[in-house]
């Protein structure tokens, strides 16, 4: 029998400050046998993104343990931050690095969702695992935040795929899927003009506005930095424009001061960036490029 497939998981938690909440969920994930590869905390977004690696059979139980811990330690009623969300453990994706491992990732994601549902957390499947077109996009489920999700569930408009038919009182709901690597990129603008950021993200960046396939974008204002920002997610590196091309589109609108890459990324996402004269904040490829991190001693 061959070795179990190596998978990644990139749980997003709705807390952006270091402390007991992040420490506790990290301990739960590592305690389940996963290897911690990266932690990205963002107080402006009110979000923590952890990247971990583990074998099929270990990922689902670890995610369920982290979800239970998040429900104990993270209270959405006290949440502060700009990032759209509906849960303490807001997003729980299982990531496959090779197409042949997709089945293993799907199995782990569905098992994790079932375990979380048994713990009393409603779970919605999104992306390629969505059970309806109205829930393929996370934005459709997050619209209006936890309060609006609770209203839609109470009205019977939205029913979770697993778990109770109402949100957890303080931990909300969980969004789960299996997917290939996603690239999160933020471009801080050299202005505090939120209207400009929103005009840029609504232009030719996002797929819904006629931009490249698989690109999602939102314009934000960051009080801590006193800058506007265009925050982008690339869901499909095979079809989406390279990060370098998206940065060029932002700069073509007369803005763009600094680039931030969230979490770990495949090498292909960085192609062409060296040709651009744009600072890359806090980026060490030995710690942030998936291929290099996995090759390093564990």
- The geometry reads as globular
Binned, the helix content reads: 25-40%
The number of distinct helices, counting runs of at least 4 residues, comes to 9
Low-pLDDT windows of residues: none
The CATH H-level superfamily of the largest domain is Formiminotransferase, N-terminal subdomain
| Sheet having the most strands | 7 strands, mixed
Order of SSEs? EEHEEHEHEHHEEHEEHEHH
Q: At CATH's second level, what is the architecture of the largest domain?
A: 2-Layer Sandwich
Q: How many strands appear in the DSSP assignment?
A: 11
**What does the radius of gyration come to?**
18 Å
CATH class descriptor name of the largest domain: Alpha Beta
Mean pLDDT: 90
Compute the number of structural domains: 2
Beginning-to-end CA distance, first to last residue:
24 Å
Structural class: alpha+beta
Beta-strand content estimate? 15-25%
Q: Assign the CATH topology of the largest domain.
A: Formiminotransferase-cyclodeaminase, Chain B, domain 1
């Amino acid at each position: 029998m061959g070795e179990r497939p190596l998978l990644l998981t990139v749980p997003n938690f709705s807390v952006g400050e270091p402390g007991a909440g992040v420490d506790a969920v990290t301990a739960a994930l590592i305690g389940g046998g996963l290897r911690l590869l990266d932690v990205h905390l963002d107080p402006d977004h009110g979000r923590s993104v952890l990247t971990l690696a583990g074998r099929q059979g270990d990922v689902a139980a670890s995610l369920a343990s982290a979800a239970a811990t998040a429900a104990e330690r993270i209270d959405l009623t006290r949440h502060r931050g700009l990032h759209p969300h509906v849960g303490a453990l807001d997003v729980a994706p299982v990531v496959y690095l090779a197409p042949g491992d997709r089945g293993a990732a799907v199995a782990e994601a569905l098992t994790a969702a079932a375990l979380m549902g048994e713990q009393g957390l409603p779970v919605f499947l999104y992306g390629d695992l969505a059970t309806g077109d109205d829930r393929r996009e996370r934005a459709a489920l997050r619209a209006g935040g936890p309060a609006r999700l609770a209203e839609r569930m109470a009205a019977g408009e939205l029913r979770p795929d697993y778990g109770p038919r109402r949100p957890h009182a303080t931990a909300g709901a969980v969004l789960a899927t299996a997917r290939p690597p996603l690239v999160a990129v933020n471009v801080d603008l050299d202005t505090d003009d939120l209207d400009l950021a929103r005009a840029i993200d609504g232009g030719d960046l996002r797929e819904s506005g006629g931009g490249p396939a698989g690109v999602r974008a939102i314009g934000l204002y960051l009080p801590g930095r006193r800058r506007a920002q265009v925050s982008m997610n690339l869901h499909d590196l095979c079809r989406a424009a390279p990060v370098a091309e998206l940065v060029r589109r932002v700069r073509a609108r007369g803005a763009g001061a600094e680039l931030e890459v969230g979490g770990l990324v495949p090498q292909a996402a960085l192609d062409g960036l060296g040709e651009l004269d744009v600072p890359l904040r806090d980026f060490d490829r030995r710690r942030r490029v998936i291929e290099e991190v996995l090759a390093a001693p564990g």
